[in-house]
Amino acid sequence: MIRSYALTDIGQKRQLNQDYIYRSETPVGNLPNVFIVADGMGGHNAGDYASRLAVETVVEEIGASFEKNAVKILNNAIRRANEQLRKRAREDKALSGMGTTIVAATCISRYLEVANVGDSRLYVISDEIRQITQDHSLVEEMVRMGGLDKETARNHPDKNIITRAVGARRDVEVDFFNVELQTGDLVLLCSDGLTNMVDDEMICRILKGDGNLEDRVEELMKTANQNGGKDNISVIVIELLADEVKHD
User: Fold this and answer.
1) What is the mean pLDDT of residues 67-78?
2) What average pLDDT does the structure give for the chain?
3) Which residues contact 140 (CB under 8 A, 6 or more apart)?
4) Cβ-proximal residues to 107 (8 Å cutoff; 6+ apart), any chain
5) Which residues, other chains included, contact 104 with Cβ-Cβ below 8 Å and sequence gap of 6+?
6) Could you give all domains of the chain from N- to C-terminal order, each with its CATH number?
């Protein structure tokens, strides 16, 4: 059994919330549950349109898919969302150049299947915090090449330049991750409005702290806003309860 809680917030500096989130603890098509965070980009209202259209398309495609394999279901759905964003951008000049990150997950028994494009993230939190996804960003590539350390990267002026996005190119490349979960693990999906304002250790401390799940997620959001809230902030946290995680 799982339980989850989700929040999205405009933050302190933005005029518009370009993030869009979705969560379903019950089946969508052949997936037992679905959780998605998308962070849109584009001028005027194109970013919020991009994230919403992408998530709605992904959910619709998951619901209609006859596939059984979670990776294939998610891959086909994100590819379809990519097509839809590009089609709408061609039809409406105001939407030209729009795109969105997407991080999506489904929990199947004790395994988590994760799909990722862009720099929204998924973490697994047990005794420590582990970032599962890899950012598709210019700064993250510099870190991987050894040109930057993680702490410098957090405040780098080019941090918002992403190298992959849904809607950006004709073909979208999706990363996939499979994680085995343990009873009591927390799964965090979030936009960079959280991770740019709150470091990993503080995220871990808040989410492993006292209080119910809702209180801890709200504390995380409050902390991001108190630290500057420079971007929209979106958070989904999934908690794995004992009878969901069965070992052979």
Assistant:
1) 98
2) 92
3) 119, 134, 153
4) 2, 32, 33, 181, 187, 238, 240, 244
5) 34, 35, 36, 58, 74, 78, 114, 115, 116
6) 2-242 (3.60.40.10)
